Amino acid sequence: MRALVAGMVGEPADVLRLESRPVPTPEAGQALIRVKATPIHASDLHVLRGRYGFSPEFPTVGGHMECVGRIEAVGPDTAVGPDTEGLKVGERVVAVAVPAIPGPPVAGTWQEYLVTDTRRLLPVPDQLSDSSACQLAVNPLTALLLVTRELDVQPGEWLLQTAAGSTVGRLVIQLARHLGIRTINVVRRRAAVEEIKELGGDEVICTEDEDLVQRVAEIAGADGVSKATDCVAGEVGAQVSRALAPGGEVVVYGALSTHRQTEPAALTIPLQARSVIYEAKAVRGFWLNRWFGTASPADALSALSEVRSLVADDVLSIPQGQPFPLERFTEAVAFAEAPAHGTKPLFVFEDGRDDDNR
Fold first, then answer.
1. How many domains does the chain divide into?
2. Tens digit of pLDDT for each residue in 79-110?
3. Which of 310, 158, 313, 300 shows the shortest CA–CA distance to 224?
4. Which stretches of 231-320 are assigned E, i.e. beta strand?
5. Residues in Cβ contact with 49 at an 8 Å cutoff, skipping those fewer than 6 apart
6. For position 144, which CATH number holds?
């Protein structure tokens, strides 16, 4: 089988190589998945650069989060069928390849076959395309968890978010409209304002020519907002903290302002000590990998099932991905980091392709 392998830490385009590897064999409690599609996330590239929250042992197959494929085989004494959430050989499933999930480690998703614990598998309804299904477990799930679990935003409340034009930001807007939550959406380009409003954002702040803290006070009142999410960090993250009401909290889940930075000391949010101390404002982090590691398998699959229903019911819309074969990985990586590309690059595999290494 073909696999996209990084031999060492470094720039993805420099360290990735296409290799031929044996098809793995599932052990007890595991399934062999023939991968159909798998996305290229920014976090996948950060893992290879050595700036993410964990570092795999190199050489490593790229892609650490999610894919869609079909169950090709199962390990000995592994139950599949009507009593195991409908899982059976030939079933199309989402595989959540997160290292923090309890159970045996999982190889990366950027390969034609992978072995995974059956507890990481979720059946995919027929109406969901491979493009949508292979993107269920990261961005839509992050949006759902931030809004409903981490911050528990209630109908009628304001939610302030940065990077509103990002994939997660757009999903948050869709989910908020569904739940009756009002959103204040921060973008950095004036050209993005109307697009976010058309998507359903209630208010939009453009940092190109507006003061974030002042505009939040004008929209939500002098005290500010009680709940916010931030994936920019840096000075923008600090402004979000200042825009919070006393006792408010911001959940930080990314650091786009330091996108290619690999020096940990540079990944900062310059907070004002007075507001943190005297106004009891809270700034805390959210990392999906850690959530998967602390949630029970049942809770994780329950949340994924909720996301699956929201997407199947058209509450959440996942943009169609841009397909690439593994052989065009340098082009795919460049596309993943191109500004305002608007869609997710996907590695795709043909069903039934002859494989001499099988």
1. 2
2. 665 445 557 899 999 998 766 555 544 569 99
3. 158
4. 244-252, 282-285
5. 9, 10, 11, 12, 260, 262
6. 3.40.50.720
